[in-house]
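Exam revision sheet. Question 4 asks you to relate a sequence to its structure. Input first:
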Amino acid sequence: MCVIFYAKLCGQTILAKNRDKAYSPRVKIYHVLHNGIEIAYIKDNKGWIEGINEHGISVVNSTLIKYDKQPFTKRNFIFELLCLKDKAAILAKLHDIEGHTIVSIGEHEVYHCENNSVNMFVNRLKTHSVFSNHSIHFNYDKVHLPDDRHFRNSVHASPFKIVSSVLRRKLTELELKHTSKSASASSEFCRSNKLLVNVAKLLNQNYDVDPRFHPYRDPGLTRREWRKQTQTSKHATKTQSRRIISQVPLTKKLIRTTSQLVVNVSQLKLAYFPDKNNSIGNSKKIPYINKLPRNYEAKIQVITQETEKNTSTPKRSLMSPQELQKVYDHYGLK
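Answer key, structure tokens:
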């Protein structure tokens, strides 16, 4: 339940991700030398890994719609991919990784793989690209499953979740489109000491739509907006007053953005931004496990910095009310 993107910004190849969870994960950063290849990666307490190696092989991933009783393996294929440097082997390894995966093979080749464990599609990315949790290439109505299995979170099963995925992707695409036009090498955005932070901010904007449709989701903001909507519902249209409280109950299990990951492939930098309100161990420094040999000069730079949901800037309408309503109507969100 995440948002990932690839972009060429300030002449740099960038991969980025908002990590969304229904729980607060414990994350450690590892910096290792494995079979002669330097790798920097994050790993959470569920075993999930993303990162970069010294050859500019980097991976970010977001999960896809899955079907009930689908078998899962505990083996982490992403780490195995980060241990590679051969293009053919890397592309072959994508067959093992579920969901939307963006992988860089150096700074000049970036690929997207959509794999729902039933079908798979791989293409080379030539311009900035964003993916969330819904399918881009597959028509699930035409995928045959055994009688005892069905897709969860499909358009028919959960219009709310599909709308959330579609809008999180669309809002991020609009941010990237706007930024890429103004992000010249001499711009404030591109200053080398601020670039990774500025990229993370692209995924952390506050919009005048349901907070659960923001690329960066915060349960506190959702609850505050819900209270405001219920208090003003007498003066709102039925659609406005219903949408914020429909479909998904406001419980402690609200999806929240727990952290952001930004990788500068061109400069071999990995930046991890834990949310200080939605990550475990807020008061402690994120564990950095350095297993590099003594006197080894690291090629990859690792950066950590706390962040939180941006609520101070004015809300912006990147989509008109008519465009938003069109999305709601298309997926049957009442």
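Marking note for examiners. The first strand starts at residue 3 and ends at 9.
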